[in-house]
Amino acid sequence: MTKLSYIFIAKFFFLYGCIDLGDNPPEGLPPNIPYPTTVSFQKDILPIFNNYRCITCHGDNGGLNLSNVNKLKTTGDHKPVVIVGDAEGSILIKKMRGTAGFGTIMPPEGMISEISITKISAWINQGAKDN
């Protein structure tokens, strides 16, 4: 076999070994990759709630209160709003994505960025700690 043949074979295996799998991971891989760092309610989540003005309606005015972790876990008309360890099952995430099946998407002015929802989801999946 010539050197050119070896190069051709190597290119063939390289090109076909790098097939794009798209949005569907291979079977057996977990669908959710863990968030790379610990998410803090005070440093990461509360600023998101403030930035999107969630606290304006969901502060100390009654109903759901997002101003601190204890109130977030214990207030609201549809409890529990946060299911610790299960972001996708939590009403908070469903309301932000518009998949709750009741009421309106939150915030009503428009969707929270997917980056912010991912960070809030990670915080819930990490235990929704008061940190």
Would you mind describing this structure in some detail?
The longest helix has 15 residues, at 3-17. The chain is mainly α and 131 residues long. The chain is built from six helices and no strands. Helix 2 runs antiparallel to helix 6 (114-125). The model is unreliable at 10-31 (pLDDT under 50).
Write a concise keyword list for the protein shown above.
single chain; 131 residues; mainly alpha; 6 helices; 42% helix
Short description:
This protein is mostly helical.
Layout of helices and strands, plus pairs?
Layout: H1 3-17, H2 41-51, H3 54-57, H4 69-74, H5 91-97, H6 114-125
Radius of gyration: 22 Å
SSE string, helices as H and strands as E: HHHHHH
- Quick one: overall form? globular
Kindly state the percentage of residues in helix. 40-55%
Distance between the termini: 64 Å
Q: What structural class results from the helix and strand content?
A: mainly alpha
* Poorly predicted runs of 5 or more residues: 10-31
Number of distinct helices? 6
Give a count of the beta strands, DSSP E runs of length 2 or more.
0
Oligomeric state, counting identical vs distinct chains: single chain
Instruction: Report strand %.
Output: under 5%
The residue-averaged pLDDT reads: 81
Major sheet characteristics: none
